[in-house]
Every structure is written in C-alpha cells, then in structure tokens.
C-alpha cells in the first residue's frame, strides 16, 4: 500500500491525522507503534529519529511526512477527496491555519500539561503549571463558545482542517477541564464533532486503550458510542 501511518490509537495528535484519512476514505496501512518497545518503534525511529507520531510514509512519492497538520495539508494536495480540508481561497486558508494553531497551542498542548502531571511520580507534580494550563483552556473555551454562534463547523463553512484539530483537543480537554453549563455553543459544537462519522470511528477504535488514560473518559465518550 502506498501510504503508511505510524500511530497509536490513544494519541490525540494521531486522532487528528486519522480523521483526515477517514474523511475521504483514503486507503492507508495503519502501523501501531509502542514507543516503549524498541522493536515496535524501530521502523518509526528509522524514518523519524525524534520518534514522535503521527508520521505518514508515502512510498509512491518517497516522502516522509511528520506532524498532524502537515500530514493533513499533504493529503489535501496529493490525495484529495470529497472533503476539501483546507480552503482554496487565500483569505480563508490563513484563517484556517490560525485556528488550527489556536486549538493545538491553547487547548491541545495545555491539556497535555494537565494529563502529563497525572503521570508524574508522587511529589513531582507542577501545581502552578497545571493551574496556568487550566486558565488558558478556560479562556480558549470562552473564545470558542463566542466564535461558534451561528456556525456548524469551525471556519463557518464546510468541515475541514480546524475541525480535525478541534475534535481530539476538545475531547481530551473536556475531561481535564469540563465545559461550563452556560457554554452552549461550545457544547453543541463538541457534540457535532463527536458524532461526525470520521471521528466517531476514531474514538471507537481507541476505546480499548482508554483504560491507559489517567482520567475518566466515559462522560466525554457517551455520544460517540450512540453514533456507532
């Protein structure tokens, strides 16, 4: 098969890339990597010594593509489908890239700080850093809630790159920092993301691994199960 994706089903960054592949039914070979196992990760390390997934290998074009956003843009150019993931016009494209970075930097990475703190040894926590991360996420939630008024998808038009970024970012962040009851636009958007067939499939495939996540996942997972 031309495309191989090195990934792990629990990884939020991998979710983002897999959504894009599922959106357009792009054929690929999924290669599950256990970074804690040298044999399992040897092939990935040979392609990308940093050993951070997702990594897409395109044998037909002799290209190795790292980072979820770059993978999505690569697929949009070289393996396009019915769902155009990045807007064609320049004005909309730069806005999509900005909001993609918004979700990665101010929701996704902040969530990872909180989750990572749960995995630290006793006495090695970073309470101050966790509170900073929670504050940033809450500010981002408020911005998303305001922005999504009157919108179905993140850019106001069709489903695309930003929604791929928002799906795992909000899924895991909502576990670490629950939404406020009054944030109706944010809540409704999150439900649409979870029931989008591409992400519902990703979550279904990740479910056997959720026991490895250090926080309860069931509340965030509920509506995705209903869509199966």
Instruction: Show unreliable segments.
Output: 224-228
- Quick check: average pLDDT? 93
CATH level 1 name of the largest domain: Mainly Alpha
Gyration radius (Cα, Å) is 17 Å
Strand tally: 4
The main pleated sheet reads as: 4 strands, mixed
- The arrangement of helices and strands along the chain is EHEHEEHHHHHHH
Describe this protein with a few key phrases:
228 residues; alpha+beta; Glutaredoxin; Glutathione S-transferase Yfyf (Class Pi), Chain A, domain 2; 2 domains; 4-stranded mixed beta sheet; 9 helices; 4 strands; 57% helix; 7% strand; globular; disordered C terminus
Write the layout of secondary structure elements.
Blueprint: E1 3-7, H1 12-23, E2 29-32, H2 38-47, E3 55-58, E4 63-66, H3 68-78, H4 90-118, H5 127-147, H6 161-176, H7 184-195, H8 197-206, H9 218-226
Helix pairs in contact: 1-3, 1-6, 1-8, 4-5, 4-6, 5-7
């Amino acid at each position: 098969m031309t495309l191989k994706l090195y990934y792990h089903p629990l990884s939020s960054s991998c979710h983002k890339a897999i959504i894009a592949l599922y959106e357009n039914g792009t054929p690929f070979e999924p290669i599950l990597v256990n970074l804690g196992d040298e044999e399992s990760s040897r092939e990935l390390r040979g392609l990308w010594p940093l050993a951070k997934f997702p990594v897409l290998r395109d044998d037909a074009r002799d290209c190795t593509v790292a980072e979820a956003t770059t993978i999505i843009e690569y697929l949009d150019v070289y393996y396009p489908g019915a769902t155009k993931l990045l807007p064609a016009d320049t004005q909309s494209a730069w806005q999509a890239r900005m909001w993609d970075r918004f979700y990665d930097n101010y929701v996704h990475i902040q969530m990872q700080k909180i989750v990572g703190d749960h995995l630290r040894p006793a006495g090695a926590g970073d309470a101050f850093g966790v509170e900073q991360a929670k504050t940033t996420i809450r500010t981002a939630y408020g911005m998303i809630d305001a922005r999504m008024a009157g919108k179905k998808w993140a850019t106001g038009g069709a489903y695309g790159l930003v929604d791929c970024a928002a799906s795992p970012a909000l899924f895991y962040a909502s576990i670490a920092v629950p939404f406020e009851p009054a944030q109706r636009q944010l809540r409704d958007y999150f439900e649409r993301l979870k029931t989008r067939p591409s992400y519902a499939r990703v979550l279904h495939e990740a479910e056997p691994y959720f026991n490895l996540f250090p926080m309860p996942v069931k509340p965030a997972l509920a509506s995705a199960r209903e869509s199966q």
